[in-house]
Design a protein that fits this description.
heterodimer; B: mainly alpha; elongated
Chain lengths: 234, 281
């Protein structure tokens, strides 16, 4: 087996270079015609999965649309309980992390390992920040007040008899979204670990990075729609 | 290199001298687009701008309603928010997710998914809106105060017995009313305030200066005692209700006179209303 590697390996420690998990030593599975085909097929699979994720949230959005149409006062009331500045901060954090995720894909393609890892780390930190803000400043304050979903509702100062519906949809929408953020953070943590330990990602092997970034962008897209629908109802 | 790396140039679609593609070289990712960092940063800036725009639109709506004293139709809020969100989504999908530079199949997958979402929402809305076309009683419920079906009420249909929630037993009451009476361990309900003699404080949570509806549970009429209902009551033949301030447009330079003629005419209510210009009393 001859390996003609034209990339510059002078900066890579020998321990990593010898590992089979290093990107230079990884190759696409033998049943594929080329690495490109494997990558494209993997990406298509990811896109198919992302469309199922969009459909998942479409169900929630449909419930939102139906109930907003039926009970607009409850929706306007409910929206006023939410602090739009928290939502705007979370939106900015998620948009920024979307940029760092896209940037990390670019850096993996250019074999800039250090900055690649930095960008992945920033993305994870943004995810944790998002979830932290949500749990401490939003859920953590509202749930003790009794603004809770479904049968757990016990807020005594509700203005509208249909407010529990609003709260249910708010918690389901943002809760399932927050779960997706956590899953995305875990994905990126796996990427970061593999990059740190074995430099597993490089110009020819960055499929997991690409797919994780695609997942992260969908999570960001969902929030782009959730934010005005929940926080900015007039 | 003798390797023919262009997959378009041979019929095989792969390179016979390197069947497993273990030799990384520059053309290995010839099909892969490497984004320009400047493009990505500018897209981020545009996205943040649109976020600010959507927040600004929301604040603008509120300002317009108070400044011009009109009520905007509800669809404006939805249309504005959704159009800005759609633009942001298109930017993220095209540039961050690189759909623009990818093969068209990925874009088609996403568009088909969005078509399915549109189908889903459209048919749900059509169903909801047309429920009362054939049977009037199937119209969507818009019942003020809720339907009154509590969490432990007997179900209307014995075939569909609802499992009672172990968490809350509202004794047939609407959960909002139940919470209002009982509260929770952090927020006190009406019963607590009644015990403490602080009912007015409780009702103040509901009654803001713009509140218009008196709550049926407000038996002692704190709505009026807090001075909230005052502006909404209409004068009747049996009682005239005081109005504050001058009638707009009725006076130019002349101050209304506060003479004793008022006292002599105070018994003659109809005179006071019709003959004299309203001086605010």
């Amino acid at each position: 087996m001859t390996m003609i590697d034209t990339s510059d390996t002078s900066a890579v420690p020998a321990r990593i270079l010898q590992s089979p998990k290093h990107w230079r030593n990884r190759q696409y599975a033998s049943h594929w015609r080329s690495g490109d085909e494997e990558f494209d097929a993997s990406k298509l699979g990811m896109w198919l999965f992302l469309s199922t994720e969009v459909l998942l949230f479409a169900g929630i959005f449909c419930g939102y649309a139906v109930f907003r149409m039926l009970y607009p006062e409850a929706w306007a009331n409910g929206s006023h309980y939410l602090d739009w500045r928290m939502g705007a901060a979370n939106t900015a954090i998620l948009l920024f992390s979307s940029w760092t995720a896209a940037n990390s894909v670019r850096l993996a393609q250019l074999d800039k390992q250090f900055w690649f890892k930095v960008n992945i780390l920033i993305t994870i930190i943004c995810a944790l920040l998002f979830v932290g803000i949500k749990f401490t400043f939003e859920y953590g304050i509202k749930l003790p007040q009794g603004k809770a979903p479904g049968t757990f509702f016990s807020y005594p100062f509700a203005h509208d008899p249909h407010e529990p519906l609003w709260w249910s949809l708010y918690y389901i929408g943002t809760g399932i979204h927050a779960f997706h953020v956590i899953v995305g953070a875990i994905l990126f943590a796996v990427v970061l670990w593999r990059a740190h330990r074995w430099q597993a990602f490089g110009p020819t092997q960055y499929t997991l990075v690409e797919n994780s970034a695609l997942y992260w962008h969908i999570v960001d897209l969902i929030w782009i729609f959730l934010f005005p629908l929940l926080y900015l109802i007039h | 290199m003798s390797q023919d790396t262009s997959t378009a140039a041979n019929d095989l679609g792969w390179d016979p001298t390197d069947p497993h593609g273990i030799n990384p070289h520059d053309e290995a990712h010839e099909g892969h687009f490497v984004a320009d960092w400047r493009m990505q940063v500018s897209i981020l800036v545009i996205l943040l701008f649109f976020t600010a725009l959507t927040v600004g639109f929301y604040n603008l709506e509120q300002w317009v309603e108070t400044a011009f004293e009109i009520t905007l139709p509800r669809w404006i809020n939805i249309a504005g928010a959704m159009s800005i969100a759609t633009i942001k989504a298109l930017l993220v999908a095209a540039f961050f997710m690189q759909l623009k530079y990818d093969k068209a199949l990925n874009t088609f997958v996403m568009l088909f998914c969005l078509f399915c979402v549109a189908l889903f929402l459209t048919f749900s809305m059509i169903d909801l809106k047309s429920r009362d076309w054939v049977y009037a009683e199937k119209a969507p419920a818009l019942i003020e105060g809720g339907t009154g079906v509590g969490l432990n009420a007997a179900s209307a249909d014995n075939d569909f017995a609802i499992a009672v929630s172990p968490k809350v037993n509202t004794a047939g009451q609407n959960i909002v009313e139940f919470a209002r009476l009982n509260g929770n361990k952090n927020e006190h309900g009406l019963l607590y305030y009644q015990e403490q003699g602080k009912e007015a404080e409780f009702w103040e949570h509901f009654y803001t200066p713009h509140s218009t509806h008196r709550d049926p549970l407000d038996e002692k009429d704190y709505f009026s005692k807090l001075g909230i209902g005052h502006h909404n009551e209409v004068s009747t033949a049996n009682a005239s209700h005081p109005r504050h301030g001058l009638t707009p447009g009725l006076f130019s330079d002349v101050e209304p006179s506060h003479t004793t003629d008022h006292a002599s005419e105070s018994n003659d209510a109809s005179h006071g209303e019709a003959d004299k210009a309203d001086d605010g009393h």
